[in-house]
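User:
Care to share a sequence and structure tokens?

Assistant:
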Amino acid sequence: MTVTLFDFFFIHQLTILGLIFIDIFIILVSMVILIISSVRAAMKRKWIEVLPLWVLVITFLLVAFLPTQLGVWTEFKMYESDRNELIHGVRNGQIVLEQKSFNSDLLLLPPKYSHLSDGGEIFMNQAKTSFFFYSYRGILSDFNGFIYVNDSHVNDIFEIFDSYHTIKKLNEHWYWVIS
């Protein structure tokens, strides 16, 4: 039996969905146990018995929901100066970026800067006024990353990035986008 690329991704998506449902089920069961334990402890007036459980739940919620936003902000701040240095060098002609292949829009970063974009590649427009640095590159079409836009006279930045699912302004020139 031959498995096509479509079958592989379809099966992979079903596996991920199955894992998500199992995770949700485990979380719900854990929450029911926590609530029952809390009610029993309240009836005995021994809150100290369920304190570790509540600490665990709060820690889990923080770990589950904060890393995305914290991770984006941390990655942005950690590499912002290096990315600005690269952009400045490219715009001044001190750094030359090579095309990945003959008909590709992707540009290869020099080894010194390859850590700034997932895969060591970026997009840059012809006028050298916008640069896209990958943070995550999906298999088919999902990706996210940081976009530098030099043109501060743009009236509505959302008109430029209309194809992105999420656009978040990080500072005057930098945006976080998700496709």
Q: What stands out?
A: The chain has two domains: 5-65, 68-178.
